[in-house]
Design goal:
The protein is α+β, with helices and mostly antiparallel strands and about 70 residues long. The protein has one helix and four strands.
């Protein structure tokens, strides 16, 4: 089973998150603080869902804009 390590921003504990839990927020195993959702693959956003995604996601975001012209 593939898993990823996510560091808690509250207490600094490293938490192992299974790859199947992609896009689901979790809780730190030590202090129970909320962990940000983990995204393993790029997310395709549109003008309809971009603002909501950015406002609701607490992690780092890398954005690539593209236009057909």
């Amino acid at each position: 089973m593939t898993s990823y390590n996510v560091k808690c921003r509250s207490c600094g504990t490293t938490n192992r998150v299974p790859a199947e839990k992609e896009a689901i927020s979790g809780h730190c195993g030590n202090c129970r603080a909320e962990l940000p959702a983990l995204y393993l693959r790029p997310q395709q956003l549109t003008d309809r869902n971009f603002d909501d995604f950015i406002a609701g996601y607490d992690g780092p975001v890398l954005v690539e804009f593209w236009a057909p012209w």
